[in-house]
Amino acid sequence: MDYQLHNRSCYGLPGLADNSLHALVTDPPYGISFGGHYWDKDLPDPQIWADALRVLRPGAFGLVFSSVRLMHRLMVALEDQ
Ligand SMILES: C[S@@+](CC[C@H](N)C(=O)[O-])C[C@H]1O[C@@H](n2cnc3c(N)ncnc32)[C@H](O)[C@@H]1O
Fold first, then answer.
1. What percentage of residues in the chain have a pLDDT greater than 70?
2. I want to staple 34 with a disulfide (CB 3.0 to 4.6 A). Which of 23, 28, 40, 67 is the partner?
């Protein structure tokens, strides 16, 4: 089976066609300042979910990691798309 992995910034996903991907696997920032990291000070901009939904095919799978403390906020951001 042929496949491609795209390991890149999640913003915009330039160069990826609409409805072209079968799966999304992502472990985005949790918004808990994990380890004092600046990149974890907030949840990601909800735009990343709009961008992800643009490139995912209907029926595609998404595996999205989060933290127990703030997963509800991530889920609402996803649901709002
Ligand atoms: C929760 S950590 C994931 C850690 C990863 N699972 C690991 O085991 O190394 C979130 C990661 O998202 C990365 N990140 C932050 N902004 C990003 C962006 N715009 N696009 C892609 N990755 C980003 C951070 O650098 C960080 O490594």
1. 100
2. 40
